[in-house]
UniProtKB/TrEMBL annotation:
NCBIfam families: 16S rRNA (cytosine(1402)-N(4))-methyltransferase RsmH. Keywords: Cytoplasm, Methyltransferase, rRNA processing, S-adenosyl-L-methionine, Transferase. GO terms for molecular function: methyltransferase activity. Gene3D superfamilies: Putative methyltransferase TM0872, insert domain, Vaccinia Virus protein VP39. The lineage of its organism: Bacteria, Pseudomonadati, Pseudomonadota, Alphaproteobacteria, Hyphomicrobiales. This is Ribosomal RNA small subunit methyltransferase H. It comes from Devosia albogilva. Coiled coil: none annotated. It is found in: Cytoplasm.
Length: 333
């Protein structure tokens, strides 16, 4: 994945700014001499800060466009920086053979530079092909928009974008594509705005739908869950994991992963108590959010949440989606 999963309303293009950077560095400290996996490299903001603090970094990203940023860090920091092209869902595989890893940092979602590049098709504010593929392969957003049945499309928009008017939007899309395929970002954005209207001061009406399509195209929730369990397999006792997420659905997954008991059903005191699983994560922090100074510098940070924890001694769990609150599309709307 890339870096910033953010609302676009009122946003202007600009340089990539790492979100909650000081807080992430503090969560992983001390950094001198540590080996850290940056599972979502993007433009390299976290990696550069970690390297400057004396750590070694194994950086991972599936987006081919990040390579120039990786090459710049490789030149500047040489043997302390390694870049591996690939998905962060397999970060334990990508980091194998590099020595013991002391920490992992993940920054979930789409990056500022992806949003700001019109031809990537992530932004409803910029004319471009309706693409949204982070790795440039597989089904595009246009493929989904032009092929899904109305009910399936409505379920997707509701489950992944929490779009309450998903049925109305899906019906408008299906009606429009009978004349011609929907091929561009602005075409879809105008169609959604016409279908559900827009109130002054509200976010653009296409915000949630574009989020849902991007998540579906890139299997973002599945990637996140796989990455969390990969970090659990990779890190030794005492290793640190820090995760920055950008909307409530992602944050819920991370919160329940660190503390599974909060996602499970309450036990009745009148029934035999179920065996309690050993804790895999301790020193779990409460949600950390950007302060006023950071929000003034970077409005795109406004929905960011950081959670971090320390790896306990218990053996890693098998990967499981159970109890994490991962949204499901089927029958969701």
């Amino acid at each position: 994945m890339g870096k910033r999963s953010l609302p676009e309303s009122g946003m202007a293009g600009g340089p990539h700014i790492p979100v909650l950077l000081d807080e992430v560095l503090a969560a992983l400290a001390p950094l001198e001499g540590k080996r850290i996996v940056d599972g979502t490299f993007g433009a390299g903001g976290y990696s550069r800060a970690l390297l400057e603090a004396g750590a070694s970094v194994i950086a991972i990203d599936r987006d081919p466009s990040v390579r120039p940023h990786a090459e710049a860090l490789a030149e500047a920091f040489q043997d302390r920086f390694v870049f591996v092209p690939g998905s962060f869902s397999e970060l334990d595989v990508h980091a194998s053979g590099q020595g013991q890893v002391d920490a992992v940092v993940l920054d979930i979602g789409v990056s500022s530079m992806q949003l700001d590049t019109a031809e990537r098709g992530f932004s409803f504010m910029r004319e471009g092909p309706l693409d949204m593929r982070m790795a440039g392969e597989g089904e595009s957003a246009a493929d989904l928009v032009n092929s899904l049945e109305a009910e399936d499309l409505a379920n997707l928009l509701y489950a992944y974008g929490e779009e309450r008017k998903s049925r109305r939007i899906a019906q408008a899309i299906v009606a429009a594509r009978e004349t011609a395929p929907i091929e561009t970002t602005t075409e879809l954005a105008r169609l959604i705005e016409k279908a559900i209207g827009r109130k002054p001061g509200d976010a653009h009406p296409a915000t949630r739908s574009f989020q849902a399509l991007r998540i579906a195209v890139n299997a973002e929730f599945e990637q996140l869950v796989e990455a969390l369990f990969a970090a659990e397999r990779l890190l030794p006792e005492g290793g640190r994991l820090a995760v920055v997420s950008f909307h409530s659905l992602e944050d819920r997954i991370v919160k329940r992963f660190f503390d599974p008991e909060k996602g499970g059903p309450a036990q009745s005191r009148h029934l035999p108590q179920a065996d309690v699983e050993p804790r895999r994560w301790v020193d779990v922090t409460k949600a950390v959010k950007p302060g006023e100074a950071e929000l003034a510098r970077n409005p795109r940070a406004r929905s960011a949440v950081l959670r971090s924890a320390t790896r306990a001694a218990a053996a890693a769990r098998p990967t499981s989606f159970k109890g994490l609150g991962v949204p499901t599309v089927r029958g969701a709307a």
